[in-house]
Amino acid sequence: MKHRSRLEIISLILDIATRNDGVTQKKILYRAYLSYEHLKKYLTLLQENELINYHEQEGKVYRTTEKGLHFLNLYAKLNEVVAMTNDIIVR
Predict the structure, then answer these.
(1) Of 18, 34, 67, 77, which cross-links 39 as Cys (Cβ 3.0–4.6 Å)?
(2) Per-residue pLDDT, 87
(3) Mean pLDDT, rounded, for 8-30
């Protein structure tokens, strides 16, 4: 697997956790291809920045917050701009 940037991993975790019913830590772990140690660090970072919430009463699931969804939208737009720039530079 290629090296992923921190932003790529963060956006992947947030994207995984956008399901309405939430996702468990185990599902995030497997879908994001992260070690348990790395996942815990990212989840802590995302919770501290209010990008993801943990809902213990609802089955110990994580859900992306509105702020997290806003981040995902901005990240997608940024990737579009970078891709367009790369197309211009490569020509």
Answers:
(1) 34
(2) 65
(3) 95
Average pLDDT rounded to a whole number, residues 2-21:
93
The CATH number assigned to the domain holding 28 equals 1.10.10.10
Helix 6-16 and helix 36-48, axial crossing angle in degrees, nearest 10: 80
How many domains does the chain contain in total? 1
pTM of the model: 0.88
For 11-24, give the secondary structure using H, E and C: HHHHHHCCCCCCEC
